[in-house]
């Protein structure tokens, strides 16, 4: 497994230089304490913990996996000890409300901390990561009593939480959920059913686990309108808050998976387990979305995390391993061959990884601001930020995990045959990354969420021109002739992005027109529309980074001009080599749904 | 693991209807016996063996893997038994010369048989598959004595062979090979050194293994000009041809890999092992290429094989699994949800798999004809066929394995979260497919072989206009207005392919110009050039298939018009949805090498 070094310089560049988090935090009700010094200290301490405590057990965790013995799940060697250190250092409570024992810092800081932990050891980070979804759901939908009872030990990290949605017969289609909730008549319920794919469903890290479970009340309407949410602890909770006897929540088996083997993926059996209802009756799906949006941004982080780790490994290997001579002449004549990094095709793969990682990180850090504003702003602004984040979330989750998987594969490819051998750790990154396009809504579901829900149903198409309006304002501002900044160096970015903003609007309009007569036009276009949106969005963020980099170079006063020059070079690479992919996606989707939909189900194969 | 059904209908379509193998075989010196009936019988018997004997041990082989105990490698349960049946049925000798005990049938039949076996169980198929490389190398470069001694038991399958190239310090860059060959003075040699990544380096399937080994004679020139080939048997061979005592060839360890776990990937130690030289002194690299071309086509088969198997699994699941309702209205109102296959985005993935599989297979079967002609044609024609096959080989290997991996991932994606769970077998296909872009020359090496060697060095750019000339002749023939066939239904294919043929020529010319002043222009363009070439070539083969399909539909007399209609639909899908990717590759490569090459090695990362 490649050694992990937290990319602190890049993170600080985004936080302090590109997105001005310093001012952002200063205006937040809960941002006062998040001064630049505190932010940097949190980054550095997160990095220290991640690099020294959990990165070293990433590969061993994969080799060892989780074990189920006597109905109890054991995590790999070192996982519980690392979690004890994490909890004792107060990390779980970082960005949770002070009224439940949290440190009350902005949510974005929690996400950035999570990115660092996740890059060091994705499987380990899933345990505290999934707990956040349960916490947020209880925080928003729970009664005061529920919050007091469950949130305090969750926030402190004494307990962890999970979300129990999927059942054997249904993943995405939660309307098919069969788990039953029977009222006891005293306001409590008995939950009976089987849930599958429950990450952290059981483990040895905490004494109790709080499950948030989707289930159906007797006589509830069919489909998604008859589903409610319940809080079901693994162990009953005594009146004094201490852990009591078993609540009949058991792990039936552990899934054998391609990767994230150190993360316990459980089949969970609830057998008359005591529960309380969370949120209103039959409104479980709506309440669920609170969790889903958090989880989807958490999964988007996975794209960047695996891309970063794979890039670090590939870069180090490309500098150390020597093979063949550069086509343009010997670069290391004293050595038997030139380092891989001198070969153009290896540079293509490394730069693709770099452009994906840094571009993706910029997209995430921008979105994280909306999460802060939604959590603390006034309710009137909430809708505005929810809309903005809602539009970006499927792009972040869908596009960044697809590119993260691509990047993980490039990193492995740089190693040649050695990449396929487990000891190097590069193939583990690919296996771990592979889940990211599947869970928390597949790529196809993200694409439908973006185009079908966010663009067409919720905004009647306006979400796109609103967003491209922002891009066009950026272009106008930096226009080399008419803009207020008159940036000649940004000419190419302004030209390309202006054209692509218009193209994005045009494509959206075409799909809207087609959808009037053929709903399949939406499903047929969704994937390519999301990928097109992702490439243009990432291009816009590269342009923003480049604008800052030129500023810094022009106004001097910085110690590392090479850092800014590298940003500019990488952005140019993105424009030259990655952004052209939008052409293929635009062309594919404007070709319409006919060839997708016209083949008979029975004509896919002939024996 | 999805059940495997040999796609016999598609194979027969290509052999009998598209490529007219019936006439091809009739004109081959060794094709007389390969009548259509015999060909079909071989396909059907191969299918029977593959489906009943080796497909059932594909997943168990992955779970069990190979074991090294007391210096001996054991293959997974059932592997040896299946091989015994294979050998006793005479399969190894199918397309080898009769003078060494072979059945003397054309090489293409051997490749197609191999495709069937490979789809059923790639790891198993590697054992007899790699033996072919050793056999071909000995057949072409061996002395009569060597052929008599080694080829007979290899052809019968009594023994197997390997190729030992890679060493710890070098994979692609074989000029760094250190393994020593010391002359004994009697025409024999002692080989000492360590080879890694030796597939089938040791196993329990045969009593002896014949290693073809790259090694360096004392005082040989440095680099690739000082490397010779040697035949090194695992066990010495007695004068009567029986297996004698150990030849100090031992397996030091087995690699732990991402996939192909049932294939033994060995570290092989040669410790003064007795050997004879194969081919001329210091010409080992040239002799090696004989093997490499075979191996590369064998690996191109892997792309199609994994794509086929993954497609079969995904298609079956998409018809059985129900989730959500189709956007255009309920398709199965009596069921709780519609089958996945009704959803546009699932169809996109399935059709992509289908287009890749069938398009790739067509490319392979076309190339296999050249292999036949090279093996049996007169020496004057050899160069012509070698050039044609040499141009196509890196496209087949590089492009088809990249697309095969993509297809395997689509198949897994159709399963949603279940695709990540091992019991379904879909993730194994991805892990098994992942090696195909790495071994036998990575994708980057194939790209350089195509653009740098085949196009620029060997043909001075002419290889492309020669090939596009063929495409343009096809377009001219089928032109709806001026062509001899005047095919209105082919209008779109003719239009697009004509434009792309011209674009391919233009791009090649641009790179040639750029390469005059900057050799890095070749390396920087190579990957995108190869992918562009692949997409256009596959488009050309889809057009050929469509031309035949329309013929069949127009002239009736066939029992399955749906088969031909499905071909046409799939071709249209390819044009609409896959071929547009050429735009991105063309744009990327014409942007030139600057942004690839200009970033300092030290500026890739800042801490």
UniProtKB/TrEMBL annotation, chains A, B:
Q: What is its EC number?
A: 1.3.99.41
Pfam families per the UniProt record, alphabetical: Acyl-CoA_dh_1 (PF00441), Acyl-CoA_dh_C (PF12806), Acyl-CoA_dh_M (PF02770), Acyl-CoA_dh_N (PF02771)
List the cofactors: FAD
Origin superkingdom = Bacteria
- Record-annotated membrane-spanning stretches: none
Tell me where in this chain the Acyl-CoA oxidase/dehydrogenase middle domain is found: 163-271
Against InterPro entries, the record matches this protein to: Acyl-CoA_dh-like_C_dom, Acyl-CoA_Oxase/DH_mid-dom, Acyl-CoA_Oxase/DH_mid-dom_sf, AcylCo_DH-like_C, AcylCo_DH/oxidase_C, AcylCoA_DH/ox_N, AcylCoA_DH/ox_N_sf, AcylCoA_DH/oxidase_NM_dom_sf
Residues of the Acyl-CoA dehydrogenase/oxidase N-terminal domain: 41-158
UniProt domain Acyl-CoA dehydrogenase/oxidase C-terminal: residue ranges = 282-449
Q: Does the keyword Ribonucleoprotein apply?
A: no
Q: Which UniProt keywords are given for this protein, alphabetically ordered?
A: FAD, Flavoprotein, Oxidoreductase
Q: Which reaction does it catalyse?
A: 3-(methylsulfanyl)propanoyl-CoA + oxidized [electron-transfer flavoprotein] + H(+) = 3-(methylsulfanyl)acryloyl-CoA + reduced [electron-transfer flavoprotein]
Q: Which GO terms describe its molecular function?
A: flavin adenine dinucleotide binding; oxidoreductase activity, acting on the CH-CH group of donors
Tell me, in a sentence or two, what this protein's role is: Involved in the assimilation of dimethylsulphoniopropionate (DMSP), an important compound in the fixation of carbon in marine phytoplankton, by mediating the conversion of 3-(methylthio)propanoyl-CoA (MMPA-CoA) to 3-(methylthio)acryloyl-CoA (MTA-CoA).
The UniProt family comment states: Belongs to the acyl-CoA dehydrogenase family.
**In its UniProt entry, what is this protein called?**
3-methylmercaptopropionyl-CoA dehydrogenase
What species is given as this protein's source?
Oceanococcus atlanticus
Q: What is the lineage of its organism?
A: Bacteria, Pseudomonadati, Pseudomonadota, Gammaproteobacteria, Chromatiales
């Amino acid at each position: 497994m490649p050694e992990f070094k937290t990319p602190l310089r890049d993170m600080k560049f985004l936080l302090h230089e590109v997105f001005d988090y310093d001012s952002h935090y200063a205006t937040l009700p809960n941002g006062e304490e998040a001064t630049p010094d505190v932010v940097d200290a949190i980054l550095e301490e997160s990095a220290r913990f991640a690099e020294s405590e959990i990165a070293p057990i990433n590969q061993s965790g994969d080799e060892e996996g989780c074990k189920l013995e006597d109905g109890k799940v054991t995590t790999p060697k070192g996982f519980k000890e690392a979690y004890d250190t994490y909890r004792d250092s107060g990390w779980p409570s970082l960005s949770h409300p002070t009224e439940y024992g949290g440190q009350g810092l902005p949510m974005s800081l929690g996400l950035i901390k999570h990115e660092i932990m996740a890059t060091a050891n994705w499987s380990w980070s899933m345990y505290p990561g999934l707990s956040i979804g349960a916490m947020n759901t209880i925080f928003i939908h729970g009664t005061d009593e529920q919050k007091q009872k469950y949130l305090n030990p969750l926030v402190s990290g004494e307990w962890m939480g999970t979300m129990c949605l999927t059942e054997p017969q249904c993943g995405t289609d939660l309307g098919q959920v069969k788990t039953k909730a029977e009222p006891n008549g005293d306001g409590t319920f008995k939950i009976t059913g089987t849930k599958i794919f429950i990450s952290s469903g059981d483990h040895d890290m905490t004494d109790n686990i709080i499950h948030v479970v989707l289930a159906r009340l007797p006589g509830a309407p069919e489909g998604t309108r008859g589903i409610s949410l319940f809080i079901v602890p693994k162990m009953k909770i005594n009146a004094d808050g201490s852990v009591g006897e078993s609540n009949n929540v058991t792990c039936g088996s552990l899934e054998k998976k391609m990767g994230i083997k150190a993360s316990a993926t459980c089949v969970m059996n609830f057998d008359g387990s005591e529960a309380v209802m969370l949120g209103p009756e039959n409104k479980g799906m709506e309440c669920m979305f609170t969790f889903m949006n958090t989880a989807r941004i958490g999964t988007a982080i996975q794209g960047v995390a695996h891309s970063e780790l794979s890039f670090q490994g590939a870069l180090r290997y490309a500098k150390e391993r020597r093979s063949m001579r550069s086509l343009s002449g010997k670069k290391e004549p004293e050595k038997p061959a030139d380092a891989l990094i001198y070969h153009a095709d290896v540079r293509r793969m490394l730069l693709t990884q770099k452009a994906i990682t840094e571009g993706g990180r910029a997209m995430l850090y921008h979105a994280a601001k909306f999460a802060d504003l939604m959590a603390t702003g006034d309710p009137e602004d909430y809708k505005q930020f929810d809309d903005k984040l809602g539009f970006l979330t499927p792009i972040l989750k869908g596009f960044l995990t697809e590119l993260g998987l691509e990047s993980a594969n490039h990193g492995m490819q740089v190693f040649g045959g050695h990449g396929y051998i487990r000891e190097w750790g590069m193939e583990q990154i690919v296996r771990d990354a592979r889940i990211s396009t599947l869970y928390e809504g597949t790529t196809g579901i993200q694409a439908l969420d973006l185009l079908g829900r966010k663009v067409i149903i919720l905004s009647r198409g306006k979400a796109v021109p609103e967003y491209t309006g922002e891009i066009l304002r950026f272009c106008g501002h930096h226009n080399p002739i008419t803009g207020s900044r008159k940036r000649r160096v940004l000419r190419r970015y302004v030209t390309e992005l202006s054209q692509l903003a218009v193209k994005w609007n045009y494509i959206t309009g075409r799909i809207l027109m087609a959808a009037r007569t053929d709903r399949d036009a939406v499903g047929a276009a969704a994937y390519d529309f999301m990928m097109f949106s992702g490439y243009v969005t990432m291009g816009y963020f590269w342009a923003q980074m480049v604008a800052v980099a030129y500023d810094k170079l022009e106004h001097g006063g910085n110690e590392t001009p090479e850092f800014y020059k590298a940003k500019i070079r990488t952005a140019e690479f993105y424009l030259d080599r990655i952004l052209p992919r939008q052409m293929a996606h635009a062309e594919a989707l404007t070709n319409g749904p006919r060839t997708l939909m016209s083949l008979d189900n029975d004509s896919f194969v002939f024996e």
